[in-house]
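fold-stage: in
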Amino acid sequence: MWRPDAADAEAAARVLARLTAPLPRRGAAWARARTVDRDRRLQRIWRSAVHHLDAGAVSPPAAALLAAVARAYVPWYGTPNPPPAAAAPRYPVPSGSAAPEGAAAHGAATRDAADRPEAPPTDAGEALLPGLTDVFTALAAPAPPGTGARHPAVVPWRTRYAGHLRHYGRPARHVWTADTFRCPGCSNADGPWTVVCDWRRVTLGCPCGLTTDRHGLTFSEVFLVLPDA
């Protein structure tokens, strides 16, 4: 049985608070605003999962779980409050319940505008909440007295990615910066990259033969733009 350590339990508790947060009541206007409120809660679940994933304080099993949650909620990344700057990250958006599509250059999804939904599938996001709530409730619960942390095994993964990987920063409110990662050996920015992740760090291999983990990219900046294997 998975018995999380303190950092895992704290992250689970923070995500659980987002999962179970009640929707606000707005009186007569509540019915009209309900969809926006639900989308905002799903967006906050995404942000909470990514925050703890990228903080690097949780165990590899917790990082893998948080990454799966973040990926499931990618459609709500910028809804209903999209970042105001053009430099803000653009992540591939899953089509319906399918896996996220492969990302094109700069991590943008290659979808025809006519096929892009006008709004995220809120009902699909809400449908994930009961199961996720059960999982995170168990992880956030106090460990039995006299027991220590116990983690399930996590299998490292390896994949290939052709395209740009970008590092995003937010030095001030409403201010975003974006830098494209380039191989420190040959300055290649297009890959194809060999991406290896053990849920503690991500390494990038360039066709020139150089492999590095000194890329400055967070888990979310890599994981959320990769196509499923």
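fold-stage: in (second)
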Amino acid sequence: MPWLKPDRKTIKHLTIANLFTILEYLLFFVATVLYYGHEYLKTAGYPVMNMISYLQSPIFERIEILLISFFMFNVVFAVSLFLLMFYGALQITAGKTLEKNSRFGYLASCFLMGTLLVIANEKLWKADTLQNLWPGFFMYSEAATFLLVPILLLIAMRRKGNTYI
């Protein structure tokens, strides 16, 4: 992995980025708790968006449109990376890692992933009993990601012999 070389300050930059993200979430959480109160916050659907919409400013009036476009960039980027990783995993399991990548194979893996998502949508996500399960699952998986990614990078750097941390 070339980005784990000892001459780079990878852990420092990743720690700073992780710190800024955590501080952003904490700032939004504290602001919404102070704005709504802890009892009403449980019933608010999107508390940050609702809080900003009450400011009655022309800048913040349509801020959800701007935020959706910013968040969609991250979603599209993450989905494209996951599709590439899925295609690579399919190549590894098929034992064709030495062969050249093809557009047909990539499109077939994208079609397979889309089909799996449609099946999961029909079987799992439309059930009323599981509807409240998914937001909690995604919240805990994000929390685990913020915890595990720096730890895994630290373990990878230690295994590589980098003591520059």
